[in-house]
Amino acid sequence: MKKVYLCMSTxxxxxxxxNVIEKAAxxxxxxxxxxxxxxxxxxxxxxxxxxxxxxxxIQNIKGVxxxxxxxxxxxxxxxxxxxPDIVIHxxxxxxxYQKAVRDRVIEVLAEWGGELIEIPYYKSxxxxxxxxxxxxxRGLPEVRRQVLRRKICSGEVFKVMVAYDGLSALLVxxxxxxxxxxxxxxxxxxxxxxxxxxAKGKPDIELVDLTSRLNSVNDIMEVTxxxxxxxxxxGGLVEHFVYNIKTLERMGVSAVIIEDKIGLKRNSLxxxxxxxxxxxxxxxxxxxxxxxxxxxxxxxxxxxxxxxxILDQGVDDALERAKAYVEAGADGIMIHSRAxxxxxxxxxxxxxxxTDKDTAIVVVPTTYNQVRESEFKEHKINVVIYAxxxxxxxxxxxQKVVTSVLENERCYExxxxxxxxxxILSLVPVx
Length: 431
Ligand code: SPV
Ligand code: MG
Hints:
The protein is an alpha/beta fold. Helix content is about 45%, strand content about 20%.
């Protein structure tokens, strides 16, 4: 009996998949390689069902003899191991990023005289309904939260980009590039107090109230499916925080970060140039404990942000606080720094990991921006937030336009730097 191999990455089994499996079973004994979460996420969206569940479902489809994990978008390793006589696939992978994958399958199969069989890709007229349903379920609060949790556990760096309104969120949601044979995209969205305030022409001092910030959350939720990490500043009074964290959970936020400052909060990057104070460990732990008690979803994350490095209190102080905050129930620690070098962040991460292997570490490399994500991964840092770049990029472009219109007393010159109306409209989804 011939050995037949095929790879599946889907969450939802539909007729096209069954067609491929039926055809494969006619040709021989079928092994299905189920693509691991990391690679599904890289090329499509993060799967709703984790690998184990997808494997179990596929194992139980008639005609499938065996399932294995395919740990790369490229088939090389797994097919060299299994040496199938036939690899089977739909005929819809001859362009885009899949072309390179297909070419490599043909090349590797040739090593033992294996054959690639392609069958006509079946596109159900209702496929768009499936896709819409999938997209809607990806946007559900609980699904976003699960994705954040699962991806953090995977050991890969969870990349987060700021958004401050629907349009900037759409860019974070939709932008992907292909590089070094991989598709890259952001994993989540940061709702920054700095950007929310600045976009409203207000200082970053907890002046923009929660109701107003929730409007931005709502706009962003509506047009995206990625997990949302909300910057809740200090969280305010404990008595208020227990209500506000529930509201954020209900709104669909995936994680909330509160920082251990007290009194009038100033932006961290101003450091000790302005008056700002760190909370006591006891009081901040109480806020964490009460916040955790208030939330219902086990996937929702409360992350404690440590300002010791911002306020020149040193790594020892940050580590003491991190330990206490985790004991109080924090699901993650954000360690912030305004240094140009990442040394103190790496020292913190390495020493924290000596005793705590699991708690998520979050960083915001605004000042030590030379560090690549791979280096954060080496230091077992889980989440990297690009906290303000969208807003900082938009402002100079707008400044150039207003200056140009004043200088020229017409908008012809400025129009050269503007996106066309058609293009800007095409960014926005139409039902
Ligand atoms: C924000 O983006 O609002 C932050 C990060 O809190 S920072 O501005 O660096 O303090
Ligand atoms: Mg902030």
